[in-house]
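REQUEST FORM: STRUCTURE PREDICTION
Request ID: SP-0412
Submitted by: Lab K.M.
Chain count: 1
Length (residues): 304
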Amino acid sequence: MQFRIAMTGATGFVGAEVLEQALAEGLRVNALTRRAQPPRAKLKWVPGSLEDPAGLDTLVRDADAVIHIAGVVNAPDRDGFEAGNARGAVAVIDAMRRRGIRRLILVSSLAAREPQLSDYGWSKELAERHVKASGLDWTIVRPPAVYGPNDREMLDLFRMARRGIMMLPPGGRLSVIHVADLARLLLALAQEREASLTRSFEVDDGTPDGWDHRDFGAAIGRAVGRPVRTLATPPWLLTLGARLDRLVRGGKAKLTPDRVDYFCHPDWVVTPRRQPPKRLWMPQVPTEDGLKATASAYREKGWL
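STATUS: Completed
RESULT:
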């Protein structure tokens, strides 16, 4: 029988790319969804949510591995983050235990490395603890900033760059990864156990020591075709901007008070010793090329 993957978050940014790659590989997929989706060959849409034990039971029932991607990046309070990230992970674990499914890939976040900085990072680290205590055959992946053609989280940076000026956090470095590279890793891990059981990986684009904020801002500028002036924004101004963003965009705000301390942390570079074995996976998308393709896709969608 063909390998079957069960997925949460398949209608989101990262999940949609994992789904496309899985189907292109000829894998069978069960995918959780809150809303009706168009039928596709080798894909079984499963109605439900992380709050729906019956839906999760159906999702994992005949799976060889589960990739848990669904979660929240924005919530009104700590309980909202815990519900979407930590309790959601527990619900998936419980469903797998009931059905005797062993292999679990959890998509966490580099934010889990510093759980004291944000409720988001705290909830991701709590989800990791639940997974580690689950008794399942687990692997945890901590991506840094993920970008790609359908991403709306970085869209504001591209829009600022188009205007020739970018407000960035004060100093520091970060790692990034293209969504296609992340998806390839998740599928490789789901089908490979030997090198990844009970391991936590941090992954990026392969840039040694990551990106300086100014250099990354300049790279986005090149992607949109214009020079960019970058401004290091002090934390107090970011906090003010977060409050204004919440007033203007409400629940769709990208800059939130919970993210300010996270954004201002000086080190969001992956740890080299936590990277996956090179025989299993290596990034393939150079970031300069990936950013240009992302800008082009944004234009085609009318977003930029």
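NOTES: The longest helix spans residues 78-99.
Reviewed by: T.R.
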